Structure to design on (219 residues):
């Protein structure tokens, strides 16, 4: 399969991308996903060194929902003064095709500042699942009339698109269940409320190492 990667990118309202020194004492980084997820962790890792380099106080604010569009729209509509940023994933490039209406134009209202981190995506099941690989997961889906439910942190994100590509190429029947962020579905994944999940490795490897989740594939 093609690589489906989580890529954290720092983005801000267009004009501010060219501001040499933002006119505010405090910068705000909006994370449009749930606390504890890979994007949130990436933002909090860079806060201290970035704040020291810019000589600014930086505050991280979570505004989850609508596959990151709620928080992203806040930044797109903010004053273009370089004071408000959004930490998003590479999936922002797909939003104009994934959603009928965004309320902003990602090509005109936002400007990328730079990449921050990268993580491969994983296909995961609960530790007690009978599936041991992707082939088994595909077979199980074809034997299940209603298909297999899978958890994802939002429509259009790379882990979601990767599973849809898997379904398209294999004929498997997978039914997405959308959550505000990966931390929100880990409990359902461990208990089997959803059959499997797709998320950045950064979100799930601690639970895999503890034996609470089982990784079937790296994408």
């Amino acid at each position: 399969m093609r690589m489906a990667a989580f890529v954290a990118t720092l983005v801000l309202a267009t004009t501010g991308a060219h501001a040499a020194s933002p006119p505010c004492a405090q910068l705000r980084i909006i994370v449009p996903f749930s606390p504890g997820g890979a994007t949130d962790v990436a933002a909090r890792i860079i806060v201290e060194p970035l704040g020291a380099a810019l000589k600014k106080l930086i505050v991280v604010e979570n505004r989850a929902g609508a596959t990151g569009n709620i928080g992203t729209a806040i930044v797109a509509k903010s004053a273009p003064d370089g004071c408000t940023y959004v930490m998003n994933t590479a999936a922002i490039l797909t939003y104009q095709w994934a959603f009928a209406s965004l309320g902003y134009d990602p090509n005109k209202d936002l400007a990328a500042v730079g990449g921050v981190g990268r993580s491969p995506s994983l296909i995961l099941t609960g530790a007690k699942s009978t599936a041991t690989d992707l082939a088994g997961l595909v077979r199980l889906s074809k034997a299940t009339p209603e298909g297999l439910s899978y958890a994802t942190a939002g429509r259009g994100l790379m882990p979601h698109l990767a599973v849809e590509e898997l379904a398209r190429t294999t004929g498997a029947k997978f039914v997405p269940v959308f959550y505000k962020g990966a931390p929100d579905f880990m409990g359902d994944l461990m208990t089997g409320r959803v059959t499997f999940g797709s998320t950045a490795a950064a979100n799930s490897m601690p639970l895999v190492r503890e034996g609470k989740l089982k990784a079937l594939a790296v994408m």
